[in-house]
Design a protein that fits this description.
The protein is an all-alpha fold. Helix content is 78%, strand content 0%. The chain is globular.
């Protein structure tokens, strides 16, 4: 047990109310995502009435991507450092996981067992092929390439990070889901962030401008809710610790920022590239 009883008691309390915590965090995350998207549209996308040059807006978008990259990388590094400093973080992880297992009802576990399939390798692979084929049929070769590099690059990054940290998974004996391999960071979490976030971006860039403006916010919110729910499902199903999922969100967000910024850079300097 950790030496300080207060963090342990707090973690156990949060774990005992994990389902409520999930709902509250999701309810807070969606307005935050909406606000950030509004700011991005307001200050990073050219408008008909704007006097700024397109290159200035590109720099703003790249700066936003760089900020997301730094934030994600810093969060990942902080979690990795805590895990590497000793057993305290791992003990708190285990306390939270045990409390979640003891207090989550069976119907919720069944629901999360369905949600987690949205982040399975098979699901994301099929989605990657279907989207790439659709983009190629529409003549969007560079956007298809960017999409495949985002999905494939994240898979390679996550596999590498797992091998580096080699963290053992928590015990998951409920039979709802089985997972092998290393635990840190969560591949479902990073994969959901990259694939559904990049899918929202690809759709926004592929649709006619007027339609894209109308559906961009719902697409961003749907991608956010999907990625967050997939990541949290791994905690409820006991196949990942909470820090695994948080690290997966961080690494996925950082990689997504790199990919989107790269496409934006290519769009600006290659007129025949992805719009």
């Amino acid at each position: 047990m950790p030496d300080n009883n207060f963090p342990a008691a707090l973690v156990q309390t949060l774990g005992a109310h994990a389902l409520l915590l999930f709902v509250l965090l999701l309810a807070a995350l969606l307005p935050l995502a909406a606000a950030l998207w509004w700011l991005f549209q307001r200050y990073a996308l050219p408008r008909d009435t704007s006097t700024l040059r397109p290159g200035v807006y590109l720099l703003i978008r790249l700066a936003a991507g760089f900020a997301a990259l730094v934030a994600g990388a810093a969060l990942f590094a902080g979690i990795a450092e805590e895990l590497g400093d000793g057993e305290r973080a791992g003990q708190l992880d285990q306390l939270f996981s045990d409390a979640v297992r003891e207090h989550t009802p069976a119907w919720a576990l069944q629901a999360f067992a369905g949600i987690t399939r949205l982040g399975d390798t098979a699901t994301l692979s099929v989605l990657a092929v279907v989207v790439a084929a659709a983009l190629l049929l529409r003549g969007r070769r560079w956007l298809a390439l960017a999409w495949l590099m985002a999905v494939g690059g994240n898979a390679l990054l996550n596999t590498t990070l797992k091998a580096v940290f080699a963290r053992t998974r928590p015990l998951h004996e409920d039979g709802l889901i089985q997972a092998g391999g290393w635990s840190f960071p969560s591949g479902h979490s990073s994969g959901a962030v990259v694939v559904y976030g990049m899918l929202a971006y690809v759709l926004i860039r592929s649709l006619p401008p007027a339609l894209a403006r109308r559906v961009s916010l719902p697409l961003v919110l749907l991608a956010t809710a999907t990625a967050f729910s997939v990541g949290c499902s791994r905690i409820f199903l006991q196949v990942h610790f909470a820090t695994d999922v948080l690290a997966g969100f961080a690494s996925g967000s950082a990689w997504l920022a790199v990919c989107v910024a790269s496409v934006e850079w290519a769009r600006h300097y290659r007129p025949s590239g992805p719009r």
